[in-house]
Design brief:
By secondary structure, the chain is an alpha/beta fold. It is built from 15 helices and 13 strands. 42% of the residues lie in helices and 16% in strands.
C-alpha cells in the first residue's frame, strides 16, 4: 500500500489546530478562578462577544451543545415546556436529547426547508394555546439555527429571523439562535452579526468551528438570562477554573479569523464546481453559500459513501458520509488552494479506482 505523506482533513471545521499566535496567547494568558468570577481573560472574551452580538452579557461554556442546552433550560424553567425547532436542527438531532433528558423539555419539530428555514405559518400553527394546557406541553421557546448545517450550511436572513421574533413576541415566547456558525452567515450575507441576531433573546456562538479556537462557545443574552445561565453552567459541570487559558485562544480566533471565512466559502464553491463535473455525483452548486458542500452519489450499488471515504483516506483525504447516498465536505482556514486541488484530484482517482475494481474485466 502506498505510504500517505499528506493529509487534507475535510471532515469538519472543528478539526483546526491552534495557531502559533493562539498557543502563545494561551501560554501568556492572565488567569484567575472563573468559578469565583475573577478570571480577567474570560471576562475580556465574554465582554467582547456580548458587544459584537449586540447583547447585554455573555458566558463562556465548554461547547455549543452545552450552550444550547443551558439556553433552552433557562427559557423553559418549568418541566413540561415545549420548544419549536427544525426537524434537522443540531439541537434536535445531534445533542443527545439533552433538552428532554435534563430539562423535561418537549421538542415540537417543524420540517426544515432546503434553505434551512421553517415555514412561518407552520411555526405559528405549532404554538399551543392556553386553552389546550390541560392536555399538551406549554410552548415557551422557538429555536433557529444559523447557518443551518444539515441543510448545507445555508444562511438564515435577518428579515426571516425578525419575522420569527415577531411571532415569538406576539405569543409571549422566547427566541434562541444556535449560532454555531453565525459568523459564516454574517460574512456570506454581508450583514453585521448583531443584526442577524437582533430579534433573538439568546444566542450560542461557537468559536471552535470556522474561527478555529481549540475549544469553547459563548452564550449571550440579557444580564438576567446570563445570571441564570451561569448557575446552570455550574450545575452541568461546565464551570472551570483558569479557563482564561482557553479564552485567550478564543479571543485570538474572534479577532483574527472572522476575516478568513470568506476564503473558506470561496474554496467550498471551487470544490462544489469540481465535484459537479464528476458524472457519478450530483451537486447543487447554487446551494453552497458558506463552507459546506454536500454531494450525492447517483448509484451507490458499487460506489457507496463508506467505500469512497475509505479509498480517500488511503490517499490522505478525510471526509465523512452524511447519509446512505451522500458525503459532506467542510472547509476551514487551514485548508489551502493546493489542498483543494489535491482533494479534487484524489476524489476523481478514487472514483476511477472503485469503478475499475468492480468492473467484470477487472474481476477476471
Amino acid at each position: 500500500m502506498k505510504m500517505v505523506t499528506r493529509t487534507v482533513d475535510l471532515r469538519s471545521d472543528t478539526v483546526t489546530k491552534p495557531s502559533d499566535v493562539m498557543r502563545a496567547a494561551m501560554a501568556n494568558a492572565d488567569v484567575d478562578d472563573d468559578a469565583l468570577g475573577t478570571d480577567p481573560t474570560a471576562f475580556r472574551l465574554e465582554s467582547e462577544v456580548a458587544k459584537v452580538m449586540g447583547k447585554e452579557a455573555a458566558v463562556f461554556v465548554p461547547s455549543g451543545t452545552m450552550g444550547n442546552l443551558i439556553a433552552v433550560l433557562v427559557h423553559c424553567e418549568i418541566r413540561g415546556s415545549e420548544v419549536i425547532l427544525g426537524d434537522d436542527s443540531h439541537i434536535h438531532v445531534y445533542e443527545n436529547g439533552g433538552i428532554s433528558t435534563f430539562g423535561g423539555v418537549h421538542p415540537k419539530t417543524i420540517k426544515n426547508n432546503p434553505d434551512g428555514t421553517m415555514d412561518i405559518d407552520k411555526i405559528e400553527a405549532a404554538i399551543r394555546t392556553p386553552i389546550d394546557s390541560l392536555y399538551y406541553p406549554t410552548t415557551r421557546l422557538i429555536c433557529l439555527e444559523n447557518t443551518q448545517a444539515n441543510c448545507g450550511g445555508r444562511c438564515i436572513s435577518a428579515e426571516y429571523t425578525d419575522r420569527v421574533g415577531e411571532i415569538a413576541k406576539k405569543h409571549g415566547l422566547k427566541l434562541h439562535i444556535d449560532g454555531a456558525r453565525i459568523f459564516n452567515a454574517s460574512v456570506a450575507l454581508t450583514v453585521p452579526v448583531h443584526r442577524l441576531v437582533q430579534a433573538a433573546d439568546s444566542v450560542s456562538v461557537c468559536l471552535s468551528k470556522g474561527l478555529g479556537a481549540p475549544a469553547g462557545s459563548v452564550l449571550v443574552g440579557s444580564k438576567n438570562f446570563i445570571a441564570k445561565a451561569r448557575r446552570l453552567r455550574k450545575a452541568l459541570g461546565g464551570c472551570m477554573r483558569q479557563v482564561g487559558v482557553l479564552c485567550a485562544a478564543a479571543y485570538v480566533a474572534l479577532s483574527e479569523n472572522v476575516s478568513k471565512l470568506e476564503e473558506d466559502h470561496r474554496k467550498a464553491k471551487i470544490i462544489a464546481e469540481g465535484l459537479s463535473q464528476i458524472e457519478q455525483f450530483s451537486v447543487d452548486t447554487k446551494s453552497v453559500e458558506t463552507n459546506m458542500v454536500f454531494f450525492t452519489i447517483l448509484d451507490t450499488s458499487v460506489l457507496s459513501p463508506k467505500r469512497l471515504c475509505q479509498v480517500l483516506e488511503e490517499r490522505g483525504v478525510l471526509v465523512l458520509p452524511s447519509g446512505s447516498t451522500s458525503i459532506r465536505i467542510v472547509l476551514h482556514y487551514q485548508i489551502s488552494d493546493n489542498d483543494v486541488n489535491y482533494a479534487l484530484t484524489c476524489i476523481k482517482q478514487a472514483v476511477h479506482q472503485i469503478l475499475t475494481e468492480a468492473s467484470p474485466k477487472h474481476g477476471n
